[in-house]
Design goal:
Length: about 200
């Protein structure tokens, strides 16, 4: 069994409760929309699901063949697109992808194909400082999918993207739903349409 299991998940920031007693099981082919205004705790929840932060209470386990993945295994089974992802503007797009792969211990190869997938074919040798905000967002998607993640987490997925970029994101979302698990955090109601499960914060 592959899935995401959230049990009694709670988190507070100082005295403020961001979310409390969340319970959910997500199976392949299903997807979760996390909605709420800015500052409601969406990004914090995504970081917990990615294994980058610890909750105040409860657990969020990523399951593979019925077993919860250990933290190191989990990080390499998750793809994350968030404003927190940092690009090096002085490196090329390909160099950024290769550096990201080395930092995560991922095998090299296929970077040019990933750039083609996100609509950046032919721009691999260009320095990221020459990219528009939309192109940088596309490059973050290339980071997220370069290892065919079991769980793909998208935080404000269409930020800085034009119509073509938004259509690209929808294709990537559809592909992820076919092969694994998908969680989308957004404050745009239309981006949550069709979700199998929903969590509203705030």
């Amino acid at each position: 069994m592959t899935g995401l299991r959230i049990e009694d998940l709670s988190h507070r920031f100082g005295r403020r409760i961001l979310f409390q007693d969340l319970n959910l099981t997500l199976a392949p082919g299903e997807w979760l929309a996390v909605t709420g205004p800015n500052g409601s705790g969406k990004t914090t929840l995504m970081r917990i699901l990615a294994g980058l932060a610890r909750p105040t209470r409860g657990a969020a386990d990523l399951l593979y063949e019925g077993q919860a993945l250990a933290p190191a295994e989990r990080r390499n089974a998750v793809g994350l697109v968030t404003p927190d992802v940092v690009l090096d503007p002085e490196l090329t797009a390909l160099e950024n992808l290769r550096f990201h792969a080395r930092m995560r211990g991922l095998p090299s190869g296929g970077e040019a194909d990933r750039l083609e997938t996100v609509g950046l074919g032919g721009r691999g040798e260009d320095r990221v400082r020459t990219f528009s905000s939309g192109m940088r967002q596309r490059l973050k998607y290339a980071f997220a999918i370069q290892h065919a993640p079991l769980l793909l987490l998208l935080d404000e997925p269409t930020a800085n993207l034009d119509v073509v970029g938004t259509e690209l994101v929808e294709r990537l979302r559809a592909a992820q739903r076919e092969r694994g698990l998908l969680v989308v955090a957004t404050n745009e109601p239309h981006e949550a349409e069709g979700a199998t499960h929903r969590i509203h914060l705030g």
